[in-house]
Amino acid sequence: MHFVKAKGILSAKNGINVYRGCLHGCIYCDSRSDCYRMEHAFEDIEVKENAVELLENELKKKRKKCMIGTGSMTDPYLPIEEKLCNVRIILQLIERYGFGFTVITKSDLILRDLDLLKKINEKTKCVVQMTLTTYDEALCRKLEPNVCTTKRRAEVLNVLRENGIPTVVWLSPILPFINDTEENLRGILQYCMQARVHGIICFGMGLTLRGGNREYFYGKLEQSFPRLKEKYQRIYGDNYIVSSPAHAKLMRIFHETCERERIMHDNEAIFSYLHTFEEKQKFEQMKLF
Fold first, then answer.
1. Residue 264 carries which DSSP code?
2. Which of 140, 232, 251, 242 is nearest to 185 (CA)?
3. Crossing angle, helix 228-236 and helix 213-224, to 10 degrees?
4. Can you say how many angstroms the Cα of residue 82 is from the centroid of all Cα atoms in its chain?
5. How far apart are CA 127 and CA 164, in angstroms?
6. For the residues 21-36, what does the mean pLDDT come to?
7. DSSP codes joined into one string, 14-70
8. Which residues have a Cβ under 8 Å from the Cβ of 235 and sit 6 or more positions away?
9. What is the pTM of this model?
10. Strands, E assignment, 73-134
11. What pLDDT band is residue 286 in, cutting at 50, 70 and 90?
């Protein structure tokens, strides 16, 4: 872990990343790609020590309230967050200034901040996005070794539902010849149905591989899935998009299930929902009149 002074904190699309790098150890992580130009070891987490100050200044200047998002590049609920509490302080700011919030995570540490998530959701909208890839617990520990397993993440989704927090699941990535099975898909969908998630984001049954990410992924395949690296190289070469042979069948099951269970499954519609700011208290007052 090392600390830096950041020049800015809020992106053009109102996204923030308090940390850079990750310790979850997911074998497929796109954030390892060379194109992101990370100048330090991926596991040497960069902490933006002035993130809170920068964000408060940005929120004060905003003329219109909006959704603030985090987690697109780095899961904010890393183990170091338990000690540093930067995300919790940022949530306090977002709640104080009346902004909406959405986060992408794989960690059950998010439940630590349930009180603040509820407060935000009472005023506007707070949406938790949870990544689910692998129903089998033993396989999940191979693919995502340093973070809570899918079963625990599903439990988190249920806690959020019980507390009125809307949720969205990222069904991504699905790795060819590893977790691209009907059993895996139906297991994850069952978790989603039980938690009554608002939507499921899915870009297809497969993954993407770029320089930096590809080499790391292939190295992990050699360790945990003997001879699979050679199969990937033979079939996909240096392709960016690595699609499962079962893509068509699995996508049909996915869309049919979501349609039947009334789970939003149009990616554009979900992203529109995630980016749309709502003021619930004003809306409730208008209904009274």
1. B
2. 251
3. 140
4. 18
5. 10
6. 95
7. SEE-SEES-SS--TT-GGGSGGG---S-TTS-EEETTHHHHHHHHHHH-SS--EEEE
8. 176
9. 0.94
10. 100-105, 126-131
11. very low
